[in-house]
Design brief:
heterodimer, A: 4 strands, B: 313 residues, alpha/beta, Alpha-Beta Plaits, 2 domains, six-stranded mixed sheet
Amino acid sequence: MFRHLFKYNLKIMLRSKEMIFWTLLFPIALATFFQLAFSGMMDATRFDPISVAVVEVGGADEMFAETIRALSAGDNRIFELMDVKDEAAAVELLQEGEIVGFFLVGEVIEVVVRHSGISATIMQNVVDSYYQTGSVVAGILEFNPGALNMELVAGIHTGESVFQDVGDSEDADFTLIMFYALIGMVCLFAAFFGLSVVTETEANLSKKAARMSVSGTHKMVGLVVGLISSFVVAYAEMLILLAFMVFVLGVSFGSQVGWILVLSAVGILAGIAMGMVIGAATKWSDNAKYALVSNMSVVSAFLAGMMLWQMRYVIEAHAPIVNRINPATLITDALYSLYFFDSMDRYFANLMNLILITGVFVLIAYVFVRRKRYDSV
Amino acid sequence: MANSVIEVKDLEKSYKELKALDKVSFEVKKGEILGLLGPNGSGKSTTIGCLLALLKFDGGEVKVFGEEMTPESYEAKRKIGVVFQDVAVYDELTVAENIDYFCGLYVKNRAERKKCVEDVIEFVGLGDFKKFRPKKLSGGLLRRLNIACGIAHRPELIFMDEPTVAVDPQSRNNILEGIKKLNKDGATVVYTSHYMEEVEEICTRIIVMDKGRVIAEGTADELKAGVSIGEKVTVEGEVSRRVVEELKKLKGVVNVEVEDRKVEVVYEKGVSGLSGLVAFLTKNDVKYERIFSELPSLNDVFLELTGKELRDE
């Protein structure tokens, strides 16, 4: 039975021109477009240091000023630090547009800017991360001073743990975020398969499913084989897309191929599960459901930076929870961290979040697909 | 009951306030073609859905092959074939692949399945279209494919839910002939339709449904015998008002209706009026173009039972 259903599921999926277009040809065309549109953009997007000043007032944390000075040195510096005597001088520079903003360092550290934007977001992130890392060190000092890792202290000083993702790499190329977000979108496009499988196994959703339900074959067999077939096709398409990006377009994914493949697999499972939920839990027409899958995938990828790489930083500043639950952002960030960071922590954090979201989708879908009789067909 | 393939007792189902099935009870005997006749919305398809354990129901009992029918009744399901009203095939598969796919849900052995597929293709007359995709088929051929997908595994019990809707007359005749042949080969058939002529032509027994209730049951002759009116004679031609008034006074005439150049004379049950009417018209020098007689139809049965015409629904 498995072989019979699997064979025909593959035939049906591979012969569906619409499905193949959206899940394979469209992403390839989009990747090619990105490459043509953004080739040479790497230089343009290389990080320009942000002009800032530091104003210390009573009870100032001297360590912070030193950190900013460290971040303002070297070729890959984040800040261009301007010397100011006092707050009035800083405000004057700010009004003249000489600086983007300044840090007002007292008992607490404030960020003063004229306009919100990516630079302001980065400045605020510096402060947040400074506090965060500082509290970790303080905690260690309080409970186990012997365990204090000097590298961590040095990290505060150089800001490494915070700023790698905005410019410490020689090869920082922000257009990569767009390609990575595209991978995220393609993973979510696997929802088309999940939606199709549910539609064709739930008797209240299609007559073909009703045929399956009245046959001598258990509905769950059809569902499971359908999901396996969907995963095989979607994963094969992903491999083709990755190969095209790497070998034809020359997009860099770093050297951690195995983890990229694991991430893609989990991403596709998340997409399929999302499609199952949309298929089973909503009562709209097929067209409306397919439109919803398509829109959700594109919006999710947009928020992850597919059209505008700064987007996820903006989201991070204003609604960080979105970045924690948006599958495309998790995939993008995981790929990004694989490429830029030596540590796997951030990759695994993203992967775990993705697995968790997939699990939630699967549970919701199961509640609906476990039904055996329906109110109407 | 040993001969019963299906036993339905006091089946009830409601959609909120609407009573879709109201204590429906009937039996289907082995070897029958049972017709479920009724207008759209009378509960025919809902009954089928409950029989197949697809639909939830509020009360009653459904037994198929002597066992209570549940979603897990896989043994029973393997002996059942279903042809739904809507065509349910895959556009991505060819005619032969579609049949093989659905047949494979019942028949695991490949050689056996291959034979089933070949036989059913021949049975429905799709031999020249085996490699065609469904989108290339006409409406009638598509219906035949739909039927083939439902019966390829040689079921003992076949449900056909309005299989001739939107089908051309030639394909309809093919389908009806096919059903009779399936029945002759041993299959029990439950056939739903709102076309009374079809039901009358192929069904050995008929259940008439309206508003979720079984309102009559029997063979076509038994049902028609139950109506109070008899022969209906229609005269087409120029008939004067005086003659119409005279007609109403004839012995055995219960009703006379005039519509344009057509006069319909309805006689009492058991009265044969054609020859007497011909003599009357000749005597009154009425020049008519056509005269014909009809016995009560299933529509008359439905009209008498519900006060409305089946064909008007």
